[in-house]
Amino acid sequence: MSNRALLTTGIIGTIVAALCCFTPVLVVLLGAIGLSAVVGYLDVVLLPALAIFVGITVYALWRRRQHSNSNPG
Questions:
Q1: Which of 16, 32, 33, 67 has the most CB atoms in a 10 Å sphere around its CB?
Q2: What is the pLDDT of residues 5-42, one digit of tens each?
Q3: Domains in the chain: boundaries
Q4: In 25-47, which positions are buried (b, 16+ CB within 10 angstroms) versus exposed (e)?
Q5: At a CB cut-off of 8 Å and minimum separation 6, what does 55 contact?
Q6: Are 18 and 58 spatial neighbours (Cβ–Cβ below 8 Å)?
Q7: Handedness of CA 52, 54, 55, 59 (dihedral sign)
Q8: Distances 68 to 10, 26, 38, 44, 73 between C-alpha atoms, Å
Q9: What is the distance between the alpha carbons of residues 46 and 65, in angstroms, rounded to a whole number?
Q10: How far apart are CA 59 and CA 62, in angstroms?
Q11: Cβ–Cβ contacts within 10 Å for residue 23, how many?
Q12: Residue 55's pLDDT band (cuts 50, 70, 90)
């Protein structure tokens, strides 16, 4: 996977997971379609997903920095 695609995936995943963790967007949507029983398990899924996407973003930024340091021109 290219570094640009990795960085894009990390940033978009982080934004989506953060929106679902820190705002009631997902709770309202699940309640609207009748799946409010699932709301109790959201933290089990969303917090690890947020950590994984932040990790992907940090790794892609680290790879970009390593690549730019090895090719100074």
A1: 16
A2: 999 999 999 998 888 888 888 888 888 999 888 888 88
A3: 3-70
A4: ebeeeeeeeeeeeeeeeeeeebe
A5: 10
A6: no
A7: positive
A8: 19, 39, 44, 37, 8
A9: 28
A10: 5
A11: 10
A12: very high
Task: State pTM to two decimals.
Answer: 0.79
Amino acid letter, residue 22: F
* 1 DSSP assignment: -
Residue 20 is encoded by which pair of tokens?
Answer: 């679902």
Q: How far apart are CA 26 and CA 35, in angstroms?
A: 10
Distance CA 61, CA 56 (A): 9
Structure tokens at 68: 């730019």
d(CA 67, CA 73): 11
